Amino acid sequence: MSELKTCFKRVDYDLDGLLHYIDIGDIGLPDIQRPFVWSNAKVRDLLDSMYRGFPVGYLLFWENQAIAGAKQIGTADKAHKVPARLIVDGQQRLTSLYAVFRGKKVFDDDYKERQIEIAFRPRDGKFEVADAAIRRDAEWMPNISDIWVSKKSSRKIVNDFLDRLTQKEELSEEQEEAIAHNLDRLFDLQKFPFTALEIAPSVDEEQVADIFVRINSEGVKLNQTDFILTLLSVFWDEGRKALEDFCRRSRLVPTASDCPSPFNYFIQPDPDQLLRVSIAYGFERGRLKSVYQVLRGKDMDTGVFSAEKRESQFKVLQAAQAEVLNITAWHQFLSALIGAGFRSGEMVSSQSALLYGYAFYLIGRNLFKVQEHALQKLIGRWFFFSTLKGRYTNSPESVMDGDLNRLKGIKTAAEFVVTLDGVMASELTNDYWMITLPADLDSSSARNPELFAYIAAQNKLSAPVLFSHKKVPELLDPSLKTTKKSLERHHLFPKAWLAKNVSEDLKLINQQANFALIEWPDNIDISDDPPSQYVPKIRTRFTPDEWRRMHEMHALSDNWESMNYPDFLIERRKLMAAIIRRGFESLK
Fold first, then answer.
1. How many CA atoms lie within 13 A of 88 on its CB side?
2. Is 72 within the bounds of a domain?
3. Is 588 a member of any domain?
4. For a Cys staple, 113 with which of 45, 91, 105, 257, CB 3.0–4.6 Å?
């Protein structure tokens, strides 16, 4: 006879009742999820659906028996420190509604307190995100939270709005009746019905996490990192909090009195991104699909789950994450990117390449004990190579799995270096540099990885800025905060001139080979003159040696300004590829 039985019950609420339970602390947020709300536009859409009487989904609660560590919604203290029900599914909806109907601040996805302001136009029942224009328009109630926070009666709210609107225009009796009806309907949203499925308190944390995964994997698709973060919340909450704290601090520019900070100009990582690094480093896996099962305690050979297996696997993850969140290692890795010519996130075409590069840095540093000076150069080359080739752009997990498999069986620092260098050498052949790369530069994409590699090479080679006595590295500093960018991408053959004399096709006009980095005053001075006119004027400012060096480092052939445009593009792509090759080979 089966022992299985239903582990939940159905309970009906109205919104006002739900908000009351949140107010007093009887409904709380478990550490399975973080207290982040939707975008204002999504909150607006939710309210519009409720106003129209549409269903907005059910809630899933977990009846609680003094579970420690449950988070509260909002930022104020609650009367009940331990909630009777924890939200497992529907947290975004309920947190958003709580913020609007109580006028409370909540935490957004950037770890900051945030006030949600949704506007309502009573004439036609339209909701909108409040902005400056709406706040000035008498037709709108700029923040509907005021309706419920003010504690005014619906009659008082209607009369006050009509008095304000009639100062602007005269309303007919029918218009006043329609406005009053729409405001009453808005006021009554607090009676909106919700159905909740409540999981029994006898269900343990692991089962609740499993239910959460099963429900969300059916409708709202969550990826494997979401599933693993769920397990962290249940079995290692300190680890998840450490991840979130690292990510929060990476977004804050440190002051002189701050402790060492993960802040940088390359990436402000999210917890799931750093989790990928931990999995790659600790478990030597690029694919996360099987890691969720491993962390639940599944023996991949027998298929049996056990608490002992789960605990041992979490110890592996804990050790890996400690290294991933090591501030010294983090900044040493990022300095390797700077050493390779990259200066900021604006030059990073793939965050996957950066994150997996960090995993390889940690592997080389901690598992193979590669000396730091050699590791810096190796990882700089690897990131340059990964960026240039778009290595982790398509199927990044599969590619990373393959890269990690290459490390199996090697035991020494020298073997680690030889393995990564071997991968790079096998792909960056002479044919690649001479044929494939020039062809890849035939692009008008502003975020083409080959273009970023070209700029990194110019930076690494200390190229002069075109038509300037300054150097590219001097003006790529991401900490410079100016009203205009120090360097601008300039059309060597101006856009307007090409449109008039060659073609109006933007893909042809905006070819990467038609761009160069110059200082913004020069960009303005050149205007729409063709190069045959503006180049002779600028040439007088430089010596022959300066002019030759400048042209060499900007992949410009002699007398390029007199070439026809199609021939110029073909020739410059070859020269750009040569600069990229020089930049990469300078890293050895």
1. 30
2. yes
3. no
4. 105
